[in-house]
Amino acid sequence: MTPPSESVAVDHEPVLTARGVFRFREAEGQQVPTVRDVSLQLAPREFLTIMGPSGSGKSTLLHILAGLERPSAGDVTVAGVDLGAGDEEHRAAVRRSKIGFIFQFFHLLPDLSVVENVTLPLRILGQNPRRHEGRVASLLDLLGVAGLRDRRPANLSGGEMQRVSIARALVTQPPLLLADEPTGNLSSKAGEEVIGLLRSVRDQLGTAILLVTHNPRDAAAADRVAFLHDGALRADAELTGGPFDVADVFRRLQELGI
Ligand SMILES: Nc1ncnc2c1ncn2[C@@H]1O[C@H](COP(=O)(O)OP(=O)(O)OP(=O)(O)O)[C@@H](O)[C@H]1O
Ligand SMILES: [Mg+2]
User: Which atom of ligand 1 is nearest to the CA of 57?
Assistant: First the structure.
Protein backbone atom coordinates (compact mmCIF):
# COMPACT_ATOMS: atom_id res chain seq x y z
CA MET A 1 0.00 0.00 0.00
CA THR A 2 1.35 3.46 -0.87
CA PRO A 3 2.31 5.45 2.22
CA PRO A 4 0.46 8.75 2.77
CA SER A 5 1.11 12.38 2.01
CA GLU A 6 4.90 12.80 1.97
CA SER A 7 5.24 10.42 -0.94
CA VAL A 8 2.43 11.93 -3.05
CA ALA A 9 3.85 12.46 -6.50
CA VAL A 10 3.69 16.15 -7.37
CA ASP A 11 2.64 15.36 -10.92
CA HIS A 12 -0.55 13.63 -9.72
CA GLU A 13 -3.65 15.44 -10.82
CA PRO A 14 -5.23 17.19 -7.82
CA VAL A 15 -8.42 15.63 -6.46
CA LEU A 16 -9.82 19.08 -5.84
CA THR A 17 -8.97 22.47 -7.31
CA ALA A 18 -10.69 25.76 -6.51
CA ARG A 19 -9.73 28.94 -8.33
CA GLY A 20 -10.86 32.42 -7.39
CA VAL A 21 -14.07 31.31 -5.69
CA PHE A 22 -16.43 34.03 -4.44
CA ARG A 23 -19.90 33.72 -2.92
CA PHE A 24 -21.94 36.86 -2.38
CA ARG A 25 -25.06 37.02 -0.26
CA GLU A 26 -27.71 39.70 -0.03
CA ALA A 27 -27.67 41.40 3.39
CA GLU A 28 -29.59 44.61 4.10
CA GLY A 29 -29.84 45.37 0.38
CA GLN A 30 -26.07 44.93 -0.17
CA GLN A 31 -24.12 42.12 -1.82
CA VAL A 32 -21.77 40.86 0.90
CA PRO A 33 -19.00 38.34 0.15
CA THR A 34 -19.15 35.33 2.49
CA VAL A 35 -16.41 33.54 0.52
CA ARG A 36 -13.71 35.79 -0.91
CA ASP A 37 -11.30 34.76 -3.66
CA VAL A 38 -10.54 31.29 -2.33
CA SER A 39 -8.07 29.18 -4.30
CA LEU A 40 -6.84 25.82 -3.07
CA GLN A 41 -5.67 22.41 -4.21
CA LEU A 42 -5.91 19.02 -2.60
CA ALA A 43 -3.58 16.25 -3.76
CA PRO A 44 -4.63 12.59 -3.87
CA ARG A 45 -4.43 11.07 -0.34
CA GLU A 46 -3.93 14.47 1.26
CA PHE A 47 -5.66 15.43 4.55
CA LEU A 48 -6.31 19.19 4.72
CA THR A 49 -8.13 21.04 7.48
CA ILE A 50 -9.56 24.51 7.05
CA MET A 51 -10.00 26.24 10.39
CA GLY A 52 -12.11 29.29 10.93
CA PRO A 53 -14.38 30.84 13.55
CA SER A 54 -18.16 30.62 13.44
CA GLY A 55 -19.52 32.59 10.49
CA SER A 56 -16.18 32.69 8.62
CA GLY A 57 -17.72 30.88 5.64
CA LYS A 58 -16.55 27.29 6.21
CA SER A 59 -19.86 25.59 5.42
CA THR A 60 -20.56 27.89 2.48
CA LEU A 61 -17.14 27.09 1.01
CA LEU A 62 -17.55 23.37 1.59
CA HIS A 63 -21.00 23.38 -0.05
CA ILE A 64 -19.53 25.12 -3.09
CA LEU A 65 -16.67 22.59 -3.29
CA ALA A 66 -19.26 19.79 -3.10
CA GLY A 67 -21.41 21.32 -5.84
CA LEU A 68 -24.29 21.80 -3.38
CA GLU A 69 -24.16 25.56 -3.99
CA ARG A 70 -22.95 27.53 -6.98
CA PRO A 71 -20.17 30.07 -6.56
CA SER A 72 -20.89 33.68 -7.59
CA ALA A 73 -17.51 33.57 -9.39
CA GLY A 74 -14.62 31.14 -9.78
CA ASP A 75 -14.14 27.50 -10.75
CA VAL A 76 -14.15 24.19 -8.91
CA THR A 77 -12.76 20.98 -10.39
CA VAL A 78 -13.25 17.60 -8.68
CA ALA A 79 -11.22 14.62 -9.93
CA GLY A 80 -10.72 16.35 -13.26
CA VAL A 81 -14.39 17.31 -13.74
CA ASP A 82 -15.39 21.00 -13.85
CA LEU A 83 -18.43 21.42 -11.57
CA GLY A 84 -19.43 24.58 -13.43
CA ALA A 85 -19.56 22.84 -16.80
CA GLY A 86 -23.19 21.73 -16.54
CA ASP A 87 -26.48 22.08 -14.75
CA GLU A 88 -27.63 20.88 -11.34
CA GLU A 89 -27.94 17.31 -12.67
CA HIS A 90 -24.28 17.40 -13.78
CA ARG A 91 -23.20 18.58 -10.31
CA ALA A 92 -25.36 15.91 -8.63
CA ALA A 93 -23.77 13.22 -10.80
CA VAL A 94 -20.26 14.37 -9.80
CA ARG A 95 -21.34 14.45 -6.17
CA ARG A 96 -22.78 10.96 -6.24
CA SER A 97 -19.72 9.34 -7.83
CA LYS A 98 -16.73 11.43 -6.74
CA ILE A 99 -17.52 13.04 -3.38
CA GLY A 100 -18.37 11.73 0.08
CA PHE A 101 -19.82 14.28 2.51
CA ILE A 102 -20.21 14.05 6.29
CA PHE A 103 -22.12 16.50 8.45
CA GLN A 104 -22.26 17.59 12.07
CA PHE A 105 -25.75 16.10 12.45
CA PHE A 106 -25.15 12.76 10.66
CA HIS A 107 -28.34 12.81 8.52
CA LEU A 108 -28.96 9.07 8.73
CA LEU A 109 -32.40 7.82 7.69
CA PRO A 110 -34.21 6.67 10.86
CA ASP A 111 -36.24 3.88 9.24
CA LEU A 112 -33.24 2.16 7.66
CA SER A 113 -30.79 -0.13 9.42
CA VAL A 114 -27.09 0.71 9.61
CA VAL A 115 -26.22 -1.43 6.59
CA GLU A 116 -29.19 -0.09 4.61
CA ASN A 117 -28.08 3.48 5.36
CA VAL A 118 -24.51 2.68 4.35
CA THR A 119 -25.48 1.06 1.04
CA LEU A 120 -28.10 3.64 0.06
CA PRO A 121 -25.66 5.64 -2.14
CA LEU A 122 -24.98 2.44 -4.13
CA ARG A 123 -28.70 1.96 -4.74
CA ILE A 124 -28.99 5.61 -5.79
CA LEU A 125 -26.27 4.87 -8.38
CA GLY A 126 -28.37 1.93 -9.59
CA GLN A 127 -26.01 -0.69 -8.20
CA ASN A 128 -27.00 -3.83 -6.34
CA PRO A 129 -25.51 -3.68 -2.79
CA ARG A 130 -25.23 -7.49 -2.79
CA ARG A 131 -22.53 -7.27 -5.44
CA HIS A 132 -20.46 -5.18 -3.03
CA GLU A 133 -21.05 -7.25 0.10
CA GLY A 134 -17.40 -8.03 0.83
CA ARG A 135 -16.29 -4.45 0.39
CA VAL A 136 -19.18 -3.12 2.51
CA ALA A 137 -18.27 -5.58 5.27
CA SER A 138 -14.64 -4.39 5.28
CA LEU A 139 -15.78 -0.78 5.32
CA LEU A 140 -18.03 -1.42 8.35
CA ASP A 141 -15.05 -3.17 9.95
CA LEU A 142 -12.68 -0.29 9.26
CA LEU A 143 -15.14 2.12 10.90
CA GLY A 144 -15.71 -0.21 13.86
CA VAL A 145 -19.46 -0.62 13.24
CA ALA A 146 -19.60 -4.18 11.85
CA GLY A 147 -21.41 -5.39 14.96
CA LEU A 148 -24.11 -2.74 14.53
CA ARG A 149 -25.19 -3.51 10.97
CA ASP A 150 -28.82 -4.36 11.77
CA ARG A 151 -29.45 -1.57 14.29
CA ARG A 152 -31.54 1.52 13.64
CA PRO A 153 -29.88 4.95 14.09
CA ALA A 154 -32.06 5.65 17.16
CA ASN A 155 -30.21 2.85 18.96
CA LEU A 156 -26.72 4.22 18.28
CA SER A 157 -24.52 6.66 20.19
CA GLY A 158 -23.49 9.91 18.50
CA GLY A 159 -20.00 8.54 17.80
CA GLU A 160 -21.48 5.39 16.29
CA MET A 161 -23.84 7.44 14.11
CA GLN A 162 -20.95 9.49 12.79
CA ARG A 163 -18.89 6.37 12.05
CA VAL A 164 -21.86 4.93 10.13
CA SER A 165 -22.20 8.17 8.20
CA ILE A 166 -18.49 8.01 7.28
CA ALA A 167 -19.03 4.46 5.97
CA ARG A 168 -22.01 5.71 3.93
CA ALA A 169 -19.92 8.58 2.52
CA LEU A 170 -17.22 6.13 1.39
CA VAL A 171 -19.31 3.27 0.03
CA THR A 172 -19.08 4.53 -3.56
CA GLN A 173 -15.25 4.74 -3.22
CA PRO A 174 -15.03 8.49 -3.89
CA PRO A 175 -11.52 9.98 -4.19
CA LEU A 176 -12.63 12.93 -2.02
CA LEU A 177 -14.28 13.15 1.41
CA LEU A 178 -15.58 16.52 2.64
CA ALA A 179 -16.36 16.86 6.35
CA ASP A 180 -18.24 19.78 7.93
CA GLU A 181 -17.55 19.92 11.70
CA PRO A 182 -17.98 16.14 12.07
CA THR A 183 -17.17 16.24 15.81
CA GLY A 184 -19.35 19.26 16.61
CA ASN A 185 -22.08 17.12 18.11
CA LEU A 186 -19.89 14.54 19.89
CA SER A 187 -18.21 14.14 23.25
CA SER A 188 -14.50 14.88 23.12
CA LYS A 189 -13.64 11.18 23.37
CA ALA A 190 -16.00 10.19 20.54
CA GLY A 191 -14.75 13.16 18.52
CA GLU A 192 -11.15 12.06 18.93
CA GLU A 193 -12.08 8.57 17.73
CA VAL A 194 -13.81 9.96 14.66
CA ILE A 195 -10.78 12.10 13.72
CA GLY A 196 -8.49 9.08 14.25
CA LEU A 197 -10.74 7.08 11.93
CA LEU A 198 -10.50 9.76 9.25
CA ARG A 199 -6.72 9.33 9.31
CA SER A 200 -7.13 5.54 9.04
CA VAL A 201 -9.50 6.02 6.10
CA ARG A 202 -6.90 8.17 4.34
CA ASP A 203 -4.09 5.71 5.14
CA GLN A 204 -5.99 2.56 4.20
CA LEU A 205 -8.33 3.66 1.40
CA GLY A 206 -6.27 6.56 0.04
CA THR A 207 -9.20 9.00 0.20
CA ALA A 208 -8.25 12.69 0.14
CA ILE A 209 -9.96 14.52 3.02
CA LEU A 210 -10.96 18.14 3.49
CA LEU A 211 -12.22 18.84 7.00
CA VAL A 212 -13.60 22.19 8.13
CA THR A 213 -13.72 22.87 11.84
CA HIS A 214 -13.22 25.47 14.54
CA ASN A 215 -11.71 22.81 16.82
CA PRO A 216 -7.88 23.02 17.03
CA ARG A 217 -7.65 19.44 18.30
CA ASP A 218 -9.39 18.12 15.18
CA ALA A 219 -7.33 20.37 12.93
CA ALA A 220 -4.07 19.07 14.42
CA ALA A 221 -4.59 15.61 12.91
CA ALA A 222 -4.28 16.86 9.31
CA ASP A 223 -1.23 17.03 7.03
CA ARG A 224 -1.92 20.71 6.37
CA VAL A 225 -3.98 23.35 8.18
CA ALA A 226 -5.26 26.43 6.36
CA PHE A 227 -7.02 29.36 8.05
CA LEU A 228 -10.21 31.05 6.89
CA HIS A 229 -11.07 34.51 8.15
CA ASP A 230 -14.06 36.55 6.94
CA GLY A 231 -14.40 34.26 3.95
CA ALA A 232 -10.76 34.54 2.82
CA LEU A 233 -7.93 32.02 3.21
CA ARG A 234 -4.80 33.31 4.93
CA ALA A 235 -2.55 31.48 2.47
CA ASP A 236 0.67 32.78 4.03
CA ALA A 237 -0.31 31.30 7.41
CA GLU A 238 -0.78 27.67 6.41
CA LEU A 239 0.77 24.95 8.61
CA THR A 240 2.35 22.06 6.71
CA GLY A 241 3.96 18.76 7.71
CA GLY A 242 1.29 17.49 10.15
CA PRO A 243 0.03 15.89 12.27
CA PHE A 244 0.67 18.80 14.65
CA ASP A 245 0.81 19.51 18.33
CA VAL A 246 -2.46 21.17 19.32
CA ALA A 247 -0.31 23.89 20.92
CA ASP A 248 1.14 24.76 17.48
CA VAL A 249 -2.34 25.21 16.05
CA PHE A 250 -3.35 27.43 19.00
CA ARG A 251 -0.18 29.49 18.56
CA ARG A 252 -0.88 30.07 14.87
CA LEU A 253 -4.48 31.10 15.68
CA GLN A 254 -3.15 33.61 18.20
CA GLU A 255 -0.60 34.97 15.73
CA LEU A 256 -3.42 35.45 13.24
CA GLY A 257 -5.73 36.97 15.84
CA ILE A 258 -8.58 34.60 14.95
N1 LIG B 1 -28.58 30.59 3.65
C2 LIG B 1 -27.98 31.73 4.03
N3 LIG B 1 -28.54 32.92 3.77
C4 LIG B 1 -27.94 34.06 4.12
N5 LIG B 1 -26.76 34.13 4.77
C6 LIG B 1 -26.18 32.98 5.08
C7 LIG B 1 -26.74 31.70 4.73
N8 LIG B 1 -25.90 30.74 5.15
C9 LIG B 1 -24.87 31.37 5.74
N10 LIG B 1 -25.02 32.71 5.69
C11 LIG B 1 -24.07 33.72 6.19
O12 LIG B 1 -22.83 33.50 5.53
C13 LIG B 1 -21.74 33.66 6.44
C14 LIG B 1 -20.93 32.38 6.48
O15 LIG B 1 -21.74 31.33 7.02
P16 LIG B 1 -21.24 29.83 7.13
O17 LIG B 1 -22.39 29.02 7.58
O18 LIG B 1 -20.59 29.45 5.86
O19 LIG B 1 -20.13 29.96 8.28
P20 LIG B 1 -19.40 28.81 9.13
O21 LIG B 1 -17.96 29.19 9.16
O22 LIG B 1 -19.75 27.49 8.58
O23 LIG B 1 -20.02 29.00 10.57
P24 LIG B 1 -20.27 27.90 11.74
O25 LIG B 1 -18.90 27.63 12.35
O26 LIG B 1 -21.15 28.63 12.70
O27 LIG B 1 -20.89 26.70 11.13
C28 LIG B 1 -22.37 34.02 7.78
O29 LIG B 1 -22.31 35.41 7.93
C30 LIG B 1 -23.80 33.54 7.65
O31 LIG B 1 -24.64 34.33 8.45
MG1 LIG C 1 -20.70 25.81 9.40
Answer: 18
